[in-house]
């Protein structure tokens, strides 16, 4: 049987795991797909390849799929996200001398209190005319929006009290060391790299900010997804099975070995294995600490593209002044996430399918059964650190005013 | 027009610079180092930035372009949507470009054309070089395999080559592959 070729762009990050495993563990092939993975070093390149036909699908920071659809920084091109590649997995790392002023070094703390300390630090730096500079991986990244959410709700104005700049993850540790930035919000394994070099100390994980924060998405051109819908469905099934493998404790060693290969992350298998088990090294010389749900790749329908996640991201883009608030754009942004495609692709596999497409984000404080079309689905805590929740309908009404 | 070329491959950057100079564009600055790149571009205030597609600093540069408005937009924003094959040609060649706001498309086009041509020419050169290198390596292993056969079997060079060729034909492999296999076997079993 000849295989259909699907080309998928990715960046060397731990959360590119599902596409890599779909290929290496044979799930893509079982779906009749030769999955060709194209590694790049910047999201701009991943995006260009997807838009101009070098790739069919991409591992992408979720907000970038929305920004592309809205035409921010590129001519508008409709992208779709029929599958989420994972939640969270990022952390905020400061220069060690700064971290020591706001947290107990080496272990996780209460990020409300840490945020209050950070506020004092930020004000001090601002008064001296040298505001804190914080690096995020991309303008339109969940890292940027999660960091901003935390800062804002700790009384720090991300647009005025600190400077937020873009820094490519492979250079984040260098920038901390050279004191070009005071802190970074990046994904695995780059915080560990900074910590092990002794140039950074983790002060918070994004899972502490939002227990179920949407992170990387499977993005594809909407026209491609529609023209090749059967192939897109097969790809989604292969990725779903890779998700099952990812959370299988028996495969920890194997997954660490695969991801660490030169053609993928080209990094330390030990550090990768640690984060896939939710262990975070907060500071050099300390024991890694397990953070519940640090990297949430598959359980509880984590791969389901909730429309409310896209809505939350758009709301953060408004707050960051990356877009002018607009009701039509809000609808377009939500339309990027395609739970209907997820259901069509995975229905035949008999996996649990949520009945709703949108939910109150941050509204679940303990394991809760939710309505499903098939299968039993229980969702765990998805709270924000400030106890607030995000209601996509209420935000829509606010925009319409 | 002030042009910046950002490329971690100094040879390729030089080839593009030369191409631009041939078109009368001489206000060109090369950036081949990663360090301090974003700040240097900000100071230079170029009208056009040509950058290799795979450059890891692109996200940082795009953010700078949005925030500082020094260079407003990727080339994609300039070209008529109907003419998007021009961008595809650039992406295929492995080059991307950013252009200052308000610059006329007809002033950009020749620059992009030069960049595409030079990137493609460089890729061809590279492929030819790789080809030549691998041919050289193949010759070396065939020569070594011949010498081995001559010594072990006491035959002359034409006979040794004929033996390699026959074995290759019989097994449907390339002569160089048979030679490699022979040398590997000799390495493993040579002492026996």
Task: Describe this entry's structure for a reader.
The complex is a heterodimer of chains A (401) and B (192). Chain A is globular, with a radius of gyration of 20 Å. A 6-stranded mixed β-sheet of chain A has the order 2-1-3-10-4-13, sandwiched between helices. Chain A has a 5-stranded mixed β-sheet with strand order 7-6-8-5-9, sandwiched between helices. Chain A has a two-stranded antiparallel ribbon with strand order 11-12. By secondary structure, chain A is an alpha/beta fold. Helix content of chain A is 41%, strand content 19%. Chain A contains 18 helices and 17 strands. Chain B is an alpha/beta fold and 192 residues long. Helix content of chain B is 62%, strand content 10%. Chain B has 7 helices and 5 strands. In chain B, strand 1, helix 1 (10-22) and strand 2 form a beta-alpha-beta unit. In chain B, helix 5 (105-153) crosses helix 6 (157-171), helix 5 packs across helix 7 (175-189) and helix 6 crosses helix 7 (175-189). The chains are: A alpha/beta (401), B alpha/beta (192). Chain A binds chain B through residues 40-45, 48-49, 51-54, 73-75, 137-139, 165-168, 170-171, and chain B through 34, 53-60, 62-64, 66, 73-74, 76-77, 81, 84, 87-88, 91-92, 96.
Helical fraction of chain B: 55-70%
Summarize the helix and strand pattern of chain B as letters: EHEHEHEHEHHH
Instruction: Show unreliable segments of chain B.
Output: none
Distance between the termini of chain A: 57 Å
Cα distance, first to last residue of chain B? Answer: 71 Å
Tally of individual helices of chain A: 18
Instruction: Classify the secondary structure makeup of chain A into a structural class.
Output: alpha/beta
Number of strands of chain B: 5
- Secondary-structure-based class of chain B equals alpha/beta
Q: How would you describe the shape of chain B?
A: elongated
Portion in strands of chain A: 15-25%
Work out the helix count of chain B. 7
């Amino acid at each position: 049987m000849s295989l259909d070729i699907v080309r998928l762009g990715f960046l060397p990050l731990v959360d590119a795991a599902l596409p890599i495993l779909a290929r290496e563990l044979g799930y893509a092939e079982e779906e009749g797909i030769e999955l060709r993975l194209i590694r790049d070093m910047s999201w701009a390149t991943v995006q260009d390849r997807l838009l101009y036909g070098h790739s069919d699908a991409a591992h992408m920071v979720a907000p970038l799929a929305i920004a592309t659809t809205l035409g921010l920084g590129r001519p508008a091109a409709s992208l779709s996200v029929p599958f989420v590649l994972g939640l969270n997995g990022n952390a905020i790392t400061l220069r060690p001398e700064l971290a020591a002023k706001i947290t107990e070094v080496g272990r996780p703390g209460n990020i409300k209190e840490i945020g209050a300390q950070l506020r004092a630090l930020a004000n001090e730096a601002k008064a001296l005319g040298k505001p804190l500079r914080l690096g995020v991986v991309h303008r339109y990244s969940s890292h940027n929006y999660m960091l901003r959410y935390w800062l804002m709700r700790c009384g720090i104005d991300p647009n005025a009290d600190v400077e937020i700049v873009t820094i490519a993850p492979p250079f984040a540790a260098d920038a901390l060391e050279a004191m070009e930035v005071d802190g970074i919000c990046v994904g695995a394994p780059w915080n560990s790299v900074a910590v092990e070099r002794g140039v950074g100390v983790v002060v918070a994980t994004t899972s502490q900010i939002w227990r179920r924060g949407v992170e990387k998405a499977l993005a594809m051109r909407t026209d491609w997804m529609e023209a090749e819908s059967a192939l897109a469905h097969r790809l989604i099934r292969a990725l779903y099975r890779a998700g099952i493998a990812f959370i299988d404790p028996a495969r920890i060693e194997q997954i660490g070995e695969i991801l660490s290969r030169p053609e993928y992350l080209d990094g330390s298998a030990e550090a990768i294995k640690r984060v896939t088990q939710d262990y975070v090294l907060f500071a050099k010389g300390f024991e890694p600490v397990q953070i519940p749900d640090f990297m949430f790749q598959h359980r509880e329908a984590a791969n389901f593209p909730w429309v409310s996640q896209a809505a939350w991201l758009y709301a953060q883009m408004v707050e960051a002044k990356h877009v002018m608030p607009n009701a039509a754009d809000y609808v377009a942004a939500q339309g990027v996430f395609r739970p209907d495609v997820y259901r069509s692709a995975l229905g035949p596999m008999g996996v649990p399918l949520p009945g709703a497409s949108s939910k109150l984000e941050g509204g679940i404080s303990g394991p809760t059964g939710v309505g499903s079309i098939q299968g039993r689905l229980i969702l765990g805590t998805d709270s924000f650190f400030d106890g607030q929740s995000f209601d996509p309908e209420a935000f829509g009404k606010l925009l319409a005013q | 027009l002030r042009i910046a070329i950002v490329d971690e491959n100094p040879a390729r950057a030089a080839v593009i610079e030369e191409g631009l100079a041939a078109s009368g564009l001489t206000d060109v600055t090369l950036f081949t180092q990663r360090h301090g790149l974003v700040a240097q571009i900000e100071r230079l205030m170029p009208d056009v930035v040509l950058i290799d597609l795979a450059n890891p600093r692109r996200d940082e540069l795009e953010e700078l372009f949005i925030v500082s408005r020094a260079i407003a937009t990727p080339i994609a924003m300039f070209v008529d949507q109907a003419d998007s094959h021009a961008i595809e040609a650039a992406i295929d060649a492995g080059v991307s470009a950013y252009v200052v706001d308000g610059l006329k498309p007809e002033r950009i086009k020749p620059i992009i054309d030069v960049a595409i041509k030079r990137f493609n020419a460089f890729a061809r050169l590279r492929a030819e070089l790789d080809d030549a290198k691998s041919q050289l390596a193949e010759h070396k292993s065939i020569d070594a395999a011949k010498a081995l056969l001559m010594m072990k079997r006491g035959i002359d060079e034409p006979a040794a080559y004929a033996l390699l060729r026959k074995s290759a034909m019989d097994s449907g492999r390339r002569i160089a592959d048979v030679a490699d296999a022979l040398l590997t076997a000799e390495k493993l079993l040579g002492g026996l």
